Amino acid sequence: MIETPSLVDQYCHGVLRTELGLGTFEAQLARTEGPPAPGTTLFDTQTGFAVRRWCPPLLGLEPHCPPARYLARRRELGVLEAGRRLLRGSGITAYLVDTGLPGDLTGPTELGLAGDAEAHEIVRLEQLAEQVADTSGTVDSFLANLAESVHAAAAHAVAFTSVDGVRHGPALAPEPPGPGEVRGAAGRWLAARRVGDGPSDPVLLRHLLWIAVASGRPLQLHAGLAAPGTRVDPVPLTDFVRATAGLGTDLVLLHGYPYHRHAAHLAGVFPHVYADCGAALTRTGARAATVLAEVLELAPFGKILFSSGARGLPELHVVGAHLFREALARVLGAWVTEGAWSPDDAQRVAGLIASGNAGRVYGLA
């Protein structure tokens, strides 16, 4: 039996504080641009089935109960009590929370209290640039304040993250932009931006990535599917990874699915690169063990990190944790049964992926 008594969720978001009806709950289950197919619901996905398997027992219901019954019980308990039961039932002992999403989401402290767990902040670079721009009157003050803000954030955050930076191939050029390029890009953005608009100029995004690298804090990069119809080009991503080798900053590749093999390959080649395996498991549900085995084929075991990637719903923290435990036990357990691994080695590797690697990368106690 492979056990993972401690889980560090190395990338997630807060949960919604508001009550949800069927439609709004479903919208949080799957990130789609429209309604489900006629006659179906968004519960008809691997994630939806996993929610119905693992979450009802935590609220006093039988597994696989109908969605309407589950949501009625959720409303009966109230959003706070239901969230508390779900988060504490996940078995997650530490949350690393990206605070860069809009909406009425709990912050790290509130999430940690609800889940009876540690909680730490991940600072999103694009949002930090927005906040600095809101209070900077000139290009010079913006650039000076931006550098100062990244330095200040590095004193309390466990990591930085970027979503948009890796979606623009030129932003991943293997060298920092020159001062003149940065001033020009910052001037164009400040002149055209409206409140709430994040930086989109590849030069400015590249500047953000490189000042984060200079901070020494781990930098998390969203390396899989981006917006609908887009993806991250592996060529510039590989060039950026190669250029940051030896600088003292670890890179953690998030949300690699369905390009998780490429992320695992980079983690195997470059000493400062780590691969996240969690969000892929949530999306693949009953097939999670297959995806995890593919990551384990390529990445060293000390370079793989668990996360739920959850946002909005505490159910997604539960699903992420349970699918990870089940997939890990199935894959490693099979190798032990076949005699390929010893039980002690399997348990040691399980501990590394579940929490040990994250503790080392992020400097957690």
TrEMBL record:
The keyword Hydrolase applies. This is Amidohydrolase. It comes from Streptomyces caelestis. Belongs to the peptidase S8 family. GO terms for molecular function: hydrolase activity. Keywords: Hydrolase. The keyword Ligase does not apply. Residues 138-364 form the Amidohydrolase-related domain. Pfam families: Amidohydro_2. InterPro entries: Amidohydro-rel, Metal_Hydrolase, Peptidase_S8_Asp-AS.
